[in-house]
Amino acid sequence: MQRLQPLLSRLHWSVSVPILAMLLLAVTWGGHPQGVLVAVIAVTLVGAVLASVHHAEVVAHQVGEPFGSLILAASVTVIEVGLIVTLMAGGGHGNASLARDTVFSAAMICVNGIAGASLLVGALKRRLAVFNPEGSGSALATVATIAAICLVLPTFTTSHPGPEFSGAQLTFAAVASLAVYALFVFTQTVRHRDFFLPVAMDGTVRDLDGDEHADPPGVRPALTSGVLLLLALVAVVGLAKIESHPIEDAVDALGLPRSFVGVVIALLVLLPESIAAVRQALADRVQISLNLAYGSAMASIGLTIPAIAVASIWLDGPLVLGLEPTQIVLLAITMLVATLTVVPGRAKTLHGGLHLALLAAFLFLAANP
């Protein structure tokens, strides 16, 4: 026992939680948990999400910005695609629009919720939240373009009945989304990397390698965190799949529309990004918060829709992607307000409050359409 104590003292929660989550996943996979076990899975799921945030930040600190934001965004997309595909494969009423509802919810939560909370926190701390309008504006324009191609156009196309793409149209949307996303990543990481780095109050790029920041953790800790991040993500996807039936039952019991399941999934998978973005805003790095917010929205649409398009080859049933009129109006207002927020390069608490008000409107109308 005395020999085990040094080992246990070094066993950080961020290491033990992913391992415990994987063990719980192995034990409960394929079953239908009830009662206390559902609560245990939910608590473990939250712990796995928090662990993924920790390890993603370790890896991000090693590779630097804006690569770190891309890692977090990719992590969210892995979770999202895994959940959507597994739920759609299970069939059932309302799953035809699950991808649309989840992706649209993710976009609204990212652009209004994560960005709004970050701007509000940053402005409360420094009176003004300062960021680079060139980088943030480019990210927002990419989000708007991908959202229009993948979510708005299916509502108005006529080749296929209903708000759906034909096979050729879905292929075009998937390829176009990937191309636009790849172009943005090239812009963010190669051509104009400085546009996506934190800025000081006078608009100059801040040095992220100064004394105020800790040294990178090293290659070995970063690789360890990379492996644990992968385990945490697999655990989150698997445990969320197990929790999906209780979530659907709870949505039905509360009398909410089945489309609200997509909102719950989006809230779940974006929890790591939300925590990381607010922490960056508290550290006066609002630009990184916006990188996370807009990058996650971009990846949620631009990577999820192509993945679902490929999965639709073996998935039965229709794939409804077109937004409803109320959703299109919310998306249009969100993009307008976000544009007016980003253009000056600095935001007041008002701007954060406006985005949070739009998020509240989205959530309320999702529950009461």
From TrEMBL:
Main location: membrane
Domain called Sodium/calcium exchanger membrane region: residue spans: 36-189, 227-366
Membrane topology, from the record: Multi-pass membrane protein
Pfam families: Na_Ca_ex
Entry's Gene Ontology molecular function annotations: potassium:proton antiporter activity; sodium:proton antiporter activity
Transmembrane spans: 12-30, 36-55, 67-91, 103-124, 136-156, 168-186, 222-240, 260-278, 290-314, 326-343, 350-367
Record protein name field: Ca2+:H+ antiporter
Keywords for this protein: Membrane, Transmembrane, Transmembrane helix
One cellular-component annotation, GO: plasma membrane
